[in-house]
Protein: FP protein C-terminal domain-containing protein
Amino acid sequence: MKNSAFLCATCNTEENDQNKIVLCHYYMKCEHLSCKKVYGVAAEKLRAKKYFCSLDCAKLSSHTSSGMENQIMEEIGKVLAEVRGTSAELRKVQDTIGELQRTHNSFAEKVDTLLNEMQAIKEDQQLLKNDVAVLQEEQFAVNETITDLEKQLDQLNRAALATHAVILGVPSSKDEDLKKVITDIALAVKCTLPEDAIVETKRLVSKDGEQTGKPVPIKVIFSDTSYKEELFAKKKCHGLLLSSTIGSNNTGTGGSRIILRDELTSFGMTLLKQARVVQEAADLKFVWPGRDGVILVRATDNSKVEKIRNAKDLQKLQHQHPKRLLDGSLLNSTMLSLNGAPAPKQQKQL
Structure:
């Protein structure tokens, strides 16, 4: 049999023309259409559809096809189930991504709001800085004005006290004549005062004078500033003057040192107390009142004398001698609160 010929199972003959045969779809068995006695249109219809050589063959083919189809459907069902599961997971992922996007958008909005608020705060801060700078300038101008007014007021007050003096170092005695004591001091420095030169004398009230053993100061009011200035000038020329060399107490030796100074105004007393606070904090050796309302300071025995006329001079002194100093709180307390100020370490007078 040639490779291109078909063998009829009925007549057992070869056939080269495939249009004259039918092929069993299940057993793959060939038969002549003439052997099956099928001709014309019936033969064409038989070839056009699946041909089975017998009813059993058709049933066997049907069972085989159904099993394969069921298996295929099962596989397709599994694939569809997996696809549905994947779709569900994909929807969850999409939902999660959507939630993340909404969260991101909300966070981005909050960040934008925060950035806007920070920018507004920066602008407000800059405005505050500008306002503070203006206030500082105004405060500086006000401080300058206050300093000038204090200076002018102090000048007026010192003019009112131009005939007043305070004498330190004179021991008190029973039934003392203070006017005679002042006259004896003047005579000791070779200054002759007329009888009407002294208007008033009195001992000043002292908080601790008797307790510390220091004599209570004497306040003197002269009838004219010329008498006071002459006494101060003669005392300066004389130099050291001891109480033991005065009047009936003239023993020639011992006694306390007699010191003459102007009576301080209220501003001068405040400035002196402030200077003593700085003296204690900065370990300055000498602080004492000078003439014309000036407070004198000397850091050591050999250092130059520094003059304090106002609060600005006092601040300058603090910056020049910052030994234990001086934070802002002490600086402010020195300027503003003078109650309970420490006593000076040593005080020097004329």
Q: What stands out?
A: DSSP finds eight helices and eleven strands in the chain. The two ends are 158 Å apart (CA to CA). The domain at 6-53 is CATH 3.30.40.10 (Herpes Virus-1).
